[in-house]
């Protein structure tokens, strides 16, 4: 059963703590992405990676960090430096440069993070 | 860089009527235009896409049209049903950069 998994679905943390959100894909996609979505808002790109061991900042990277040590995994750490971390976080992946349909991007189910 | 504008931000239609959502883009090099549907509390789902060498694409009740000259593309949903109620996002892709998304349209289908 191929797809993108994000865990957990809901996450609660105290202010000042770092927290890591998991994203795993078994689609053999080269590229992976992290987005943030606030209530009633669109999708804002945090970080993306087009190949293992390489990643680039998106539009709102401040207060976040990522790693891409394996093709199938792209964890996102929300650090204590992120001023408003409460949001819905979405991971996505796409083939990008691979065979077949390189452009199609697919999203995971999301993790809702609440920081109090 | 690319900029995508999406209209309207909210849309209400009667069940059975058609719904049209429009997007404009700024980068003439953009060549791929997907549409996503997001239901409450879920991740966006790719529902249809179009490449720049095609003017129209249909899949059952949904269709997308592209006007490269005017740099706009539209999503058409016919015979709307309550389960079509969701937020719809358009996006554009240029070169090797990530997708650029519109801000979304909240569609409500009234039974």
Provide structural commentary.
The complex is a heterodimer of chains A (116) and B (111). Chain A has strands at 4-7, 10-13, 19-25, 31-37, 44-51, 54-57, 64-66, 76-78, 87-94, 106-107, 111-115. In chain A, a hairpin with a 6-residue loop joins strand 4 and strand 5 (44-51). The radius of gyration of chain A is 14 Å and the shape is globular. In chain A, the strands form 2 sheets. In chain A, strands 2, 4, 5, 6, 9, 10 and 11 form a 7-stranded mixed sheet that branches. A 4-stranded antiparallel sheet of chain A has the order 1-3-8-7, with no helix packed on it. Chain A contains no helices and 11 strands. In chain A, 0% of the residues lie in helices and 47% in strands. With 116 residues, chain A is mostly beta strands. Chain B is mainly beta. Chain B is built from no helices and 11 strands. In chain B, strands 2, 4, 5, 9, 10 and 11 form a 6-stranded mixed sheet that branches. A 5-stranded antiparallel sheet of chain B has the order 1-3-8-7-6, with no helix packed on it. In chain B, a hairpin with a 4-residue loop joins strand 7 (62-67) and strand 8 (72-77). Chain B starts with a strand and ends with a strand. The model of chain B has no long low-confidence stretch (mean pLDDT 95). Chain A binds chain B through residues 4, 33, 41-43, 45, 48, 50, 58, 90, 92, 96, 103-110, 112, and chain B through 32, 34, 36, 41-46, 49, 89, 93, 96, 98-99, 101-104.
Helix content of chain A: under 10%
Averaged pLDDT of chain A: 92
Q: What is the largest interface, and how many residues per chain?
A: A-B, 21 and 19 residues
Tell the overall outline of chain B: globular
Low-confidence stretches of chain B: none
The protein's oligomeric status is heterodimer
Q: Approximately what portion of the residues of chain A adopt beta-strand conformation? A: over 45%
Topology:
The complex is a heterodimer of chains A (116) and B (111).
Chain A (H helix, E strand, L loop, with lengths): L3 E4 L2 E4 L5 E7 L5 E7 L6 E8 L2 E4 L6 E3 L9 E3 L8 E8 L11 E2 L3 E5 L1
Parallel strand pairs in A: 2-11
Antiparallel strand pairs in A: 1-3, 3-8, 4-5, 4-9, 5-6, 7-8, 9-10, 9-11
Chain B lengths: L3 E4 L2 E5 L4 E7 L6 E7 L6 E7 L4 E4 L2 E6 L4 E6 L8 E7 L7 E2 L3 E6 L1
Parallel strand pairs in B: 2-11
Antiparallel strand pairs in B: 1-3, 3-8, 4-5, 4-9, 6-7, 7-8, 9-10, 9-11
């Amino acid at each position: 059963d191929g797809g993108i998994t994000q865990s957990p679905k809901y996450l609660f943390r105290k202010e000042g703590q770092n927290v890591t959100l998991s994203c795993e894909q078994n689609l053999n996609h080269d590229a992976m992405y992290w987005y943030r979505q606030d209530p009633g808002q669109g999708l804002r790109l945090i970080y993306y990676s087009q190949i293992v061991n390489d990643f680039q900042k998106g539009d709102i990277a401040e207060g976040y960090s990522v790693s891409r040590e394996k093709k199938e995994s792209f964890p996102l750490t929300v650090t204590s430096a992120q001023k408003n971390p409460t949001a819905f976080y979405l991971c996505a992946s796409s083939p990008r440069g691979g065979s077949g349909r390189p452009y199609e991007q697919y999203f995971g189910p999301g993790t809702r993070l609440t920081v109090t | 860089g690319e900029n995508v504008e999406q209209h309207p931000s909210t849309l209400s239609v009667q069940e059975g009527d058609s719904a049209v959502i429009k997007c404009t883009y700024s980068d003439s090099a953009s060549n791929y235009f997907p549409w996503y549907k997001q239901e409450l509390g879920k991740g966006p789902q790719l529902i249809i896409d179009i490449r720049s060498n095609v003017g129209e694409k249909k899949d059952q009740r949904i269709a997308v049209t592209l006007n490269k000259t005017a740099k706009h593309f539209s999503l058409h949903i016919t015979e709307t049903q309550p389960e079509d109620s969701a937020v719809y996002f358009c996006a554009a892709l240029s070169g090797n950069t990530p997708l650029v998304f519109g801000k979304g349209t909240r569609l409500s289908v009234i039974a």
